[in-house]
Amino acid sequence: MQKINVEEQLNILIKLQALDAQLYRLRRERTAKPKLIEELEARRNQEQAAVKEIEEKIKANQLKRKQKEMDLQTEEESVKKLSTQLYQIKTNKEYQTMQHEIEGHKADNSLLEDEILAIMEEADSFSKELIKERELFAEAERRLSEDRKKIEGEIAVIDNEIANFESQRKELTAQVDKKVLSQYEKVLANREGVALVAVKNHACQGCFINLPPQVINEIRMKDKITVCESCARILYIENDADV
Q: Are 58 and 123 in contact (CB under 8 A)?
């Protein structure tokens, strides 16, 4: 079985790790972009719902006013009818009874007029609120349209960069020993895109655990792939003076 050239493999892995760091960053950005559009759509939908809610209040207000106006018309007709009948009454007692009934209807009319006035004031308030909410909805629509185009453009750029890096990655992985690559890929997936780290100040730069002298010596010897016993990342020495 042919022995691998560890130094050569590490040099390739260093380049590969640099590519993968870019790929993981770009993929995170790529994943976040559609969520930005979703947030804008949620805001637009919220404003749209606010407009519909006020429109429903206005409809209910109009129906309530119509009903009150019909009630007022009925009461006014009752007053008119009773007032006409008042002149046909012969006894004082009947006159007083009907007069009291008329006054009751007039009092009801006054209450209905107050209620209609309050409904009209409420309608005026709803109209002003509707104008404001429609402006907010229009702004949310405009922003969604503009930002969607911008974000979709950014996604296209990211996709292009990812494709470029993946092409470069394919060329590099072809040069890595299959077992070494398998080990690297496993750690890469488990450690959020960081499978290879340098050693500085006798510490792994992945988990920052101090490394025993024998581990440092193993890395220097470049006789085999050495990993951190704490985080399993592959270790290398970039600058011997930093160790």
A: yes
Residue 210: phi and psi, rounded to 5, are -65, 140
Helices first, then strands: H and E counts in the chain: 4, 3
pLDDT in tens, 158-205: 999 999 999 999 999 999 999 999 999 999 999 999 999 999 999 999
Q: Is 239 helix (H, G, I), strand (E, B) or coil?
A: coil
- Sign of the CA dihedral 224, 227, 233, 239? negative
Contact 20, 191 (CB under 8 A): no
Quote the tokens at residue 72. 């007022």
Q: What pLDDT is recorded for position 89?
A: 83
Please give the structure tokens belonging to residue 37. 């559009």
Polymer length in residues for the chain: 243
Residue 67's identity, in one-letter code, is Q
Positions in the chain short of pLDDT 70: 1-2
Q: What is the pLDDT of residue 228?
A: 97
CA dihedral 9, 13, 14, 20 (to 10 degrees): 170
pLDDT in tens, 1-14: 468 899 999 999 99
Contact between 162 and 26 (Cβ < 8 Å): yes
Strand ordering across the sheet containing 234-236: 203-204, 196-200, 234-236
Closest by CA position to 201, among listed 146, 238, 156, 151: 238
- How far is it, in rounded angstroms, from Cα 143 to Cα 127? 24
Which pLDDT value is given to residue 2? 63
